């Protein structure tokens, strides 16, 4: 899973930011992206696409990845903006913000010299490549997916407290049968993406 990163290091790139997002298909809440720069040659055992890991394993790997990273950044775009500019552009914006927010352990900003992105394009003047199913093919993108997933899951716990009754802590904003039923029973919250609800609200 390090072949993309290794090839770029051979070409002389040093600060390679690997980027992924989570929450793209949710009915509720922010889309969250992570951009992470890892040391050359680092391979963390057990890292793979966050969707293929248990919550406990993700939490463990989250801490290991953060501890070993040169730097990382988080980008968030809320439901209101998603409704205004659509989810694809919001995903790209979240990724751009994540890159702009990369800092090291001392809080110093780092500008990457190359971007490895999970199946997207980021509007920045930095060399980049979008990799289809990147979280399966790139160790760094898989690490970014884990950081983004754990970060957003923690946000879901905050949203659970703010909007009790929807069971956000369980479905994380995705369009499960329970979530759709709760929407029709309790109504739409400010956290919901109204552009996603046209065929759900009766």
Automatic annotation (TrEMBL):
Domain of life according to the entry: Bacteria
Chief subcellular location: cytoplasm
EC number: 3.1.26.4
Protein name: Ribonuclease HII
Keyword ATP-binding assigned: no
Cofactor: Mg(2+); Mn(2+)
Catalytic activity: Endonucleolytic cleavage to 5'-phosphomonoester
UniProt keywords, alphabetically: Cytoplasm, Endonuclease, Hydrolase, Manganese, Metal-binding, Nuclease
Gene Ontology terms describing biological process: DNA replication, removal of RNA primer; mismatch repair
Cofactor binding, per record: Manganese or magnesium. Binds 1 divalent metal ion per monomer in the absence of substrate. May bind a second metal ion after substrate binding.
InterPro entries for this protein: RNase_HII, RNase_HII/HIII, RNase_HII/HIII_dom, RNaseH-like_sf, RNaseH_sf
GO CC entries: cytoplasm; ribonuclease H2 complex
């Amino acid at each position: 899973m390090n072949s993309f990163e290794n090839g770029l290091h051979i070409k002389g790139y040093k600060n390679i930011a690997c980027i992924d997002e989570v929450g793209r298909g949710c009915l509720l809440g922010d889309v969250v992206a992570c951009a992470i720069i890892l040391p050359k040659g680092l391979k963390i055992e057990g890292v793979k696409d966050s969707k293929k890991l248990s919550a406990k394993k993700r939490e463990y790997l989250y801490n290991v990845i953060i501890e070993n990273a040169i730097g990382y950044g988080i980008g968030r775009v809320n439901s209101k903006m998603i409704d205004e500019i659509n989810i694809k552009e919001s995903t790209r914006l979240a990724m751009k913000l994540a890159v702009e927010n990369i800092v090291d352990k001392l809080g110093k900003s780092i500008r990457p010299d190359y971007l490895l992105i999970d199946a997207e394009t980021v509007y920045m003047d930095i060399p980049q490549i979008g990799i289809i199913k990147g979280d399966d093919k790139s160790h760094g993108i898989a690490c970014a997916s884990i950081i983004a997933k754990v970060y957003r899951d923690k946000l879901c716990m905050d949203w659970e407290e703010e909007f009790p009754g929807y069971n956000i802590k369980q479905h994380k904003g995705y369009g499960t049968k329970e979530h759709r039923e709760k929407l029709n029973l309790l109504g739409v919250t400010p956290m919901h993406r109204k552009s996603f609800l046209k065929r759900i609200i009766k």
